[in-house]
Write a structure and sequence with these properties.
Blueprint: E1 2-4, H1 10-21, E2 25-29, H2 34-46, H3 50-59, H4 64-70, E3 74-77, H5 84-98, E4 104-108, H6 127-141, E5 144-149, E6 177-185, E7 188-196, E8 208-214, E9 219-221, H7 227-235, E10 237-238, E11 243-244
Parallel strand pairs: 1-5, 1-6, 2-3, 2-4, 4-5
Antiparallel strand pairs: 6-7, 7-8, 8-9, 10-11
Length: about 250
């Protein structure tokens, strides 16, 4: 699960992972329509400004830009409020068409999924059950399933590390890995590992990796550092124990 406030680029993080890795992906885009996702995808791959990508998409003036996306194995679903049956149908349809399940399934975001129940008017009711469903899906399909989610009110501004307790609805029991995102600076996002069944984590949110984020071009990438900063990182590695300790630059 990836949880973050508005403007931190959680959708762009996973769209970038899908497009750049070129692994077979099913992206269930309940939160954004086809125009938005196609324009974003053009920006992610080409590096052009999002405004230019949107204008190209509107004018149907695509040529070389379209070819950059043609070979990427990603399939989108754009139902704005899909039921669990709809989600399952799309996953099974993918397997029927391509002969195997996708390597990556992105659910953007989980609060848009209609899970039913007695309190259907509450968007956060039944999300524990939904997480159980997605966890079971991951095991049955062999896919990496990433669910995008919101954070609680005090962390919506995304101006400080978000702890595990900042996940909206406190639905952290099931996911094996939970990331939270906050703004470190105007062009840097910190992604905190607040839960990790297979490795190191810090529920406080203070253990995070920084990525540069240029929202005007939909670019999420490793930060560029100087030779001195790189050397400081190398010096922080304990080669005997193979442990990396972060050092301030």
């Amino acid at each position: 699960m990836t949880a973050a406030g508005a403007g931190t680029g959680k959708s762009i993080l996973w769209l970038t992972i899908a497009l750049r890795s070129k692994v077979p992906t099913l992206y269930l885009s309940a939160d954004s329509d086809a125009f938005t996702q196609y324009s974003r995808s053009l920006s992610v791959i080409s590096g052009m400004e999002l405004v230019s990508a949107e204008n190209l998409t509107r004018s149907d003036g695509l040529s070389g830009e379209e070819l950059e996306l043609a070979g990427i194995p990603i399939r989108f679903g754009f139902d704005a409020s899909p039921s669990l049956d709809t989600v399952e149908t799309q996953v099974e349809a993918y397997e029927e068409v391509y002969g195997e399940y996708p390597a990556l399934i992105v659910v953007d975001n989980i609060t848009n999924i209609r899970v039913g129940g007695e309190n259907d008017s509450d968007p956060f009711s039944g999300l524990e059950g939904l997480n159980d469903y997605l966890h079971d899906m991951a095991r049955n399909t062999g896919s990496f399933v990433a669910g995008l989610h919101h954070v609680t009110g005090p962390y919506n501004d995304a101006d400080k590390p978000i702890p595990l307790s900042g996940v909206k609805g406190q639905i952290s029991r099931v996911p094996e890995l939970i990331l939270t995102g906050h703004r470190v600076s105007s062009n840097t996002v910190g992604w905190s590992v607040v839960k990790n069944r297979g490795g190191r984590a810090d529920p406080s949110g203070n253990l995070f990796a920084e990525l540069e984020f240029d929202g005007s071009r939909m670019q999420m990438r490793d930060p560029r550092i100087s030779v001195e900063q790189f050397q400081a990182s190398v010096d922080a590695i304990d080669t005997d124990r193979m442990i990396y300790e972060t050092q301030p630059f």
